[in-house]
Amino acid sequence: MLTRRTLIVSALATPAMAQVDLGFSDNPMRLLTSAFPQKGAMILQRSSPPLLETPIDVFDTADFTPNDRFFVRWHHPFPLEIDPAQHRLAVTGHVRKTLSLSLADLARLPRVAIAAVNQCAGNGRGLFNPRIPGAQWGNGAMGNALWEGVRLKDVLALAGVQAGAAAVRFGGLDAPLTDSAPAFEKSLPFDHALSDDVMIAWGMNGQPLPLLNGFPLRLVVPGWYSTYWIKMLDRITVLDKPDDGYWMTKAYLQPDNALADIAPGTPPGRRVPVTTMRPRAIITSISGGAKLPARSFTPVRGVALGGDQGVKSVELSADGGATWLSAQLGPDHGRFAFRRFLGALALPPGRHVILARATNAAGETQPVRQNWNPSGYNRAGVEPVPVEIS
Ligand SMILES: Nc1nc2c(c(=O)[nH]1)N[C@H]1C(S)=C(S)[C@@H](COP(=O)(O)O)O[C@H]1N2
Ligand SMILES: [Mo]
User: Fold this and answer.
1) Is 280-389 the same fold as 81-273?
2) Which of 1, 49, 122, 124 has the fewest beta carbons under 10 Å from its own?
3) pLDDT in the model for residue 390
4) Pocket flag, ligand 1, residue 174 (CB < 6 Å)
5) b or e along 201-239 (b: 16 or more beta carbons within 10 Å of the residue's beta carbon)?
6) pLDDT at residue 8 in the model
7) Is the CA virtual torsion 61, 361, 370, 127 positive or negative?
8) Are 76 and 46 in contact (CB under 8 A)?
């Protein structure tokens, strides 16, 4: 006889699903899923609203992260169908003329394309020690794409910003489950909103944005963490004072120092919004704990980002950072893009820990010691990769 219990047991026993080991100090296994629209195999962190992480080996094979493997992060439910012909972008607030722009209106402005890394402020949060609550990302909450669209400043010029503008706030079609929760809205200081780099994008790697990455329009803020890169963008509000909303004043705050670094257990002190990214290098060809055959040189490949500056160099070490060897850099797609690297280390049989560190054009180098803060933002230290050569 089939009891309820046997049903549950058999459901658990079948079928085996692929899992990924993200290397957290506990509960490191995650399922791989291909169940989401326009997405291939992704690491499932949460199904609704979705958090989907890119497996690190995806970064090992291309400078640009394919759209169907690009990570996904939503705070709130969002529409699953959007008619681009009906979509409007409202520009309101401290402007001379309120606008309601169609995609065709936007397409009449000068077009720009920028290669830029989109990285969640909490990328790598699951790897912190002591552990930190929140989305348990490995290092795959990032990706590099060619973003195509128009400059935000050209759209603001159409509306005519009035004197005394302080900030520009952005919102999208997603909405919280309850009316009392604040919509996910983020702002840029007015001077940064006018920067040449900040874009309203409809294209990603030559294709329309995937729905889960913000179809039909998203903000792109090169060099800044992706919390500002509002998806399904439908409103822009020019403010005459700083944004006092929840998502700017209560969330996405970091200790007020460049590395967002405090000793665990100590008070965070003054906190400021997360903004620019830090240089990072991530090894993509070798996963932690790998057993590799002995050879005269072990190749080490990876991707680096410079933060809001270009990548100047990537160096490798197998002696805890006492000595460093330069890696070769791959093609330069501009200062906001991934820069792939390839180096080689002479590793005799035995256990080793491989380190890769990036330095950006401003001369900022990744620290070997990992930074820490209670929100798990701005992870910036070197990621050690233990290997065994035999
Ligand atoms: N409308 C909207 N835009 C959003 C978010 C959101 O919840 N809603 N999350 C932000 C955060 S925190 C991240 S990390 C990025 C993720 O971008 P992606 O899903 O295209 O990778 O979207 C940003 N833009
Ligand atoms: Mo994020």
Assistant:
1) no
2) 1
3) 94
4) yes
5) bbebbeebbbbbbbbbbbbbbbbbbbbbbbbbbbbbbbb
6) 47
7) negative
8) no
Instruction: Report the atom number in ligand 1 closest to the C-alpha of 70.
Output: 21
- 183 CA from centroid of ligand 2 (Å): 15
Residue 119 has a CB neighbour count (10 Å cut-off) of 26
Which CATH architecture fits 81-273? Alpha-Beta Complex (3.90)
Q: Which atom of ligand 1 is nearest to the CA of 119?
A: 14
Maximum alpha-carbon separation in the chain:
78
- Range with the poorest average pLDDT among 6-15, 147-156, 303-312: 6-15
Mutate to test the pocket of ligand 1, among 231, 236, 379 (most ligand atoms within 8 A of CB): 231
- Mean pLDDT, to the nearest integer, of 349-363? 98
Which ligand lies nearest the alpha carbon of 116? 1
Closest ligand 1 atom, CA of 252? 12
For the segment 281-288, the average pLDDT, to the nearest whole number, is: 97
> Is residue 232 within 6 Å of ligand 1 at its C-beta?
yes
CATH number of 280-389: 2.60.40.650
- Bridge-based pairing state of the strands 328-329 and 72-73: unpaired
Which pLDDT value is given to residue 17?
81
CA 189, 192, 197, 200 torsion-angle sign = positive
161 lines ligand 1 (CB under 6 A): no
Question: How is residue 361 written in tokens?
Answer: 């054009």
Q: Is the CB of 172 under 6 A from ligand 1?
A: yes
Neighbours of 375 (CB within 10 A): 21
Please, are residues 32 and 17 in contact by the beta-carbon 8 Å criterion? yes
- Calculate how far, in angstroms, residue 178's C-alpha sits from the geometric centre of ligand 2: 21
pLDDT at 15: 57
Domain boundaries, the chain: 17-73, 81-273, 280-389
Mean pLDDT on 49-73: 98
User: Ligand 1 pocket check: which of 46, 68, 73 to mutate, most ligand atoms within 8 Å of Cβ?
Assistant: 73
